Amino acid sequence: MGARWMLLMISLGVLFGGAIGAEELDLPEKLPTSLESARIYLSFSEFRDLMATLAQFEKEEVPKRRPPRDFGVTEVQFDATVDGNMARIEAEYRIQVWDPEGWVSVPILGGDVAPISGTMDGKPVSLAAFARPPSDIAPDTPWQALTIDAPGTYTVELTFLTPVTTEDGVMAFEFQIPPTSLAKMNLRLPYPEATVEAPRAAGVTQTAVGDSLQAEMAFLPTSRVEVSWTRRARAAAPDEPAQLSAQTATLATVSAELLHIRSVARIDVLRGATDSLRIRLPRNVNVMQVTGADIAWEVERKDGDQILTVRGSRPWFDTVSLAIEGEIPLDERAPTATIPYLIVEDVVRETGFVGVAAQDNIELEPGPVIQGVTAIDTADLPSDIRGASASPILLAYEHDGGAYLLPIDIRREPPRLASDAATLALVGEGHLGLRSQVRIDVLRGAAESVRMRLPRDVNILEVQGDAIGWNVDRSNDEQLVTVRGSEPWTEAFDLDIHYEHLFDKDATEVTVPALSIDDIVRETGNIGIAARGNVEIKPSPVIEGVTRMDPSELPSRVQTISSNPIMLAYRYSGMPYLLPLNIRRLEDAPVRVAGIDRAHLTTVIAPSGIALSRATFHVQNNMQQFLRVHLPEGAELWGAEIGDRPVKPARENDSDTLLLPLLQSRPQGSGLGSFPVAVIYFEQRRPLGKTWDDLDLTAPRTDMLINEMLWDVYLPEEIGIYRATGDLDRDARRRRTSSLSYSETSMETLGPLREGIERFFITDINNPAASIAGGTGDRYQGDPVETERPLDPGTIAGMLPISITLPVTGTAHSFSRIVVPSDTPMTLSLQVYGGTVHAVGRYVVGALSIVMGIFIMSLWAHALRAYPDHGTAAVLLLIAGAILAGAALYYVPSFRLWIGLGIGGAVVRLIVLGMGSRRSKSTAAQPGEVQ
Length: 931
Known about the structure:
Number of helices: 8
Structural class: mainly beta
Strand content: over 45%
């Protein structure tokens, strides 16, 4: 600031030639304090630079000091008058608004009061809903606020109403106010004997004035006003009864079949005390419930009326509030309903109000003869009636006690409905199954029931919906289905109808029955037609009232419920329609009902000739009972399983065919799932030769088509195959060189396993009496197995077999075939060589590999001598050759590698020799040169 003002003063001095005292500026100490005769001269360029420097300094704004709040309520004065169950309050607010930025919302009243009028500085104002109150005002409470856009002090005068509550003889009202430190209230009560309390007031001063009570109170800093009072019963003479006054508020709701009554009775004890009340009602009112604080009630019918007696757990000295609910059944066609009266007996004064509301599609009018009541505007009814009605109140009355006559004329209008149906028709042989999903929209009024019509020859199976009941009435050539809900429908609802039509199997035409709904102003629908079984359907040339459409345009609710393809689709608008179909029954073609997806055979062969096999068939079965299996000739059945569980196989009479029981495949995705069926069988063969041998294997035959057959043959490690022929091909992709087994059981366990099978398993499954035969033999004790000894026939048939684990070891050789017809034998012929040939071959190949490696190293040595500049590469090649030659002793595939390397070495040798001959010629001495 100092530098800017200094430049400004210097500039003024330059313009006006005046002198400025140095003491008036904040100048450096080195400048002289005064120059009385001095003048400062500046060129225009210097003056311009000085002004530009001055312009760079922006005007610094002094931050404006804002008040802590935009507004404050400094004082509130309330004048409250209680009349019955409502308090009328006139309030005066003093509001201070400080310098706001724009508009400010000042909360005045909470949302639990009803404003009547208001002024601000004598001018009418209105309150608006307070959306976002300040943080220091309860944010979860709705508020009513004034909007002010200028600072100042304002006087706001409001008149509002707040309800008076009564609980256990304590009457009270309360309401929200904005936070203020000064709040006062003058309260006027019509009960001079009452005692006033205000928990948030510093003190309460009360004075009885005639038949009323004046109370003054000043509240501590608060945001909520709470005032309560209790009444002391006036003493009465010992024999003088209590004096009571009553006010009733009755809400009568008229529906199509019921007149529901809810009355709220407020009884004030003016003098004395009472412990019971008697209320008189017409005899046709069914009293359902009476609620109040600590009461008990009973009903006694007397003469043409009934007396409702209400007793309290203690005497009442002040005010009693009761809520009475009852109902009167009405005839559906009754033109008039009479509103029942409710009279509190033994009271000195009784007043009341009656509001009449309508449910469903009903209009109400006052009856021609009305006695004891006066019609009023519905807005003048007490809040007890207006707040309790969920339906609009059409008529309102008041009365001064006693019995009254209030008939109401009822005019019922039928509801307006619209329907949209989605129907699926499934055509079969002599059967037409139908399912209609109907969506009914209630356009006006309320529907208690829906009536649907169908032809008489249609069988209605089921009608489904939310909380409905239905019945069928057959008359003439049609049948009427009436559906009723647990309560009247006032909005859209859905119905699901299942029905069928039976016709002659030889019929060539069938008509889709039309489903129509009564009392519908608009009726639309879609029909999808599908075929079930070998039935061909075509539209008939005689079709009325429907339009053909593409099946893809049908609603999703039709397409999703059909598991068959929809062939025809139609839409209609209105009734009636005619939709005949031409049908033609087709002959059934035989198809496969069972098949084998994959057959997996595993055969383990020991050097001693023992062959143990497991054939697993993954079966898809729809209705076949057994799988027929023909084992290889001489094979011995050891076990059978379905889904990893042992089963009892059977044998056809006079045949070696095994019958294995089947399961039924479960649906899986779009088809059927498969399950495994396995047989384990044993074959005794001659021992394998030490040098060469032929091995012929036969797979089990089945009565089902096999899509794919896989066969893994496990041979001992020293046995190799040099040729394989037969019905299956080598499967190089599944070839495994390591021992992959179902378990780690070694080949030696075949002996004990066979011994156990001989002793405990089934050998004659068709001879249960064989168990009596003797001859069990000794148990296996580790001695060599006698492979030529026949199996012991002394076993039990018809029992569940044990579960057998196949001991898989050795080298696997895999074979496969696609599509094996039923009852087709599959064979494999393997030419194998024994361990001796395998060992000799390894040594011969190893020796050839060593010779070939030495030959290649000699070639590399010659290349090293011929080209000494490449010595490093040659040395590395020598080392590699030595390593590979050593590896050739153990791996047969290196034989081919070394043959390739030998041929390559020979080619290199020839190239080196050629290059050497050319070099010798180029370095030979020319004629006349000295060597």
